[in-house]
Specification:
This protein is mostly beta strands. The protein contains two helices and 27 strands. The strands form five sheets. Strands 10, 12, 14, 15, 17, 20, 22, 23, 25, 26 and 27 form an eleven-stranded mixed sheet that branches. Strands 7-9-11-13-16-21-24 form a seven-stranded parallel sheet, with no helix packed on it. The chain is globular, with a radius of gyration of 25 Å.
């Protein structure tokens, strides 16, 4: 397979603050011993302990971790960005988990071969691309689809916990694109896993949807955004969800409507829409009321 053949072709430079691979190459990290910094020649296998690493990991194309490591942890102050495929800790057996502990960024890639992706309390993680795993966003954690508007495809299930935050940036009306678009998280079933129910987004009461305008965009009357799309959305009480529009303030007489929406193709969405919030003047209501009263009086006098 091309991915396997390319694993050992990377030129990797590691300092205390960064690992950098040349574009269109691959990074191999064995995740075994604590390494403060080294320069590795192309063709060699290199090691870093992510539990003590607090810098920035940048890969040009592919990133693969050690199959023996059960968890991949991004520690405080760490970010990881990839322009290609991320296939961390390809499993040989047992359970494999992508696990964030405080803050990190994974963008523009493909995360695969995990059973679970756990975004834990205190984490702030951006994911953009495809993720083949079940994803849990725990209380006090934040997840978003990329560092700017983008699309996150989750092939599996999504669980948004109580007081978890899902951030959606709106820079336009086109779903899932960076320029002139807005963030979309899409949760879908993997047809290759027969008998396993996937594509379900489960949202706990108190889960937070943080909606932000981006790049100077401001939504107008009638604009709609399907920010979370899934084969099925499970929520006990939609009214218990928290929508934060602090950074998505609309023009006068406009407001936000929130709903679970049937997309008509066997899929559902969490939809936000700009609606009119204008209330008729009190005088208008009084005149209208008297008009109805007069109409009722006349109708009663008719035989």
């Amino acid at each position: 397979m091309g991915f396997r053949r390319s694993l050992y072709r990377a030129l990797i430079v590691l300092s205390v603050t960064a690992i950098t691979a040349t574009p269109a190459k691959a990074v191999v990290v064995a995740y075994e011993n604590d390494q403060a910094g080294w320069l590795a020649a192309s063709g060699s296998v290199n090691t870093i302990d992510f539990e003590s690493f607090t810098g920035q990991l940048i890969t040009g194309n592919e990133f693969s971790g050690n199959p023996g490591a059960p968890n991949f942890a991004l520690q405080s102050g760490t970010s990881m960005t990839s322009d290609g495929a991320i296939s961390d800790f390809v499993p040989t057996s047992g359970s494999n988990t992508f696990y964030t502990t405080t803050s990190g960024t994974v963008a523009n890639g493909v995360i695969s071969n995990f059973e679970d992706v756990i975004i834990d309390t205190g984490s702030n993680v951006s994911l953009k691309g495809a993720l083949d795993a079940d994803v849990a966003v725990n209380s006090g954690a934040t997840v978003s689809a990329g560092n700017s508007p983008g699309l996150l495809n989750i092939v599996g299930n999504l669980d948004l916990g109580v007081s978890s935050t899902t951030l959606f940036e709106l820079a336009g009306l086109t779903p899932g694109v960076e320029v002139g678009g807005y963030d979309v998280i899409d949760v879908a079933d993997d047809p290759g896993t027969g008998g396993t129910t996937e594509g379900v987004a489960t949202i706990a009461g108190g889960a937070i949807f943080d909606i932000d305008f981006f790049a100077g965009f401001m939504a107008g009357l009638g604009d709609t955004f399907d920010v979370l799309v899934a084969d099925a959305i499970s929520v006990v009480d939609f009214d218990l969800l928290v929508f934060d529009f602090t950074d998505a303030v609309l023009a006068a007489n406009l407001g936000w409507s929130k709903s679970l929406h049937d997309l008509g193709n066997g899929r559902s969405s969490v939809r936000i829409e700009v609606v009119s919030s204008q209330v008729p003047e009190p005088g208008t209501l009084i005149v209208f009321g008297f008009g109805l009263l007069g109409f009722g009086f006349v109708s009663r006098r008719r035989p």
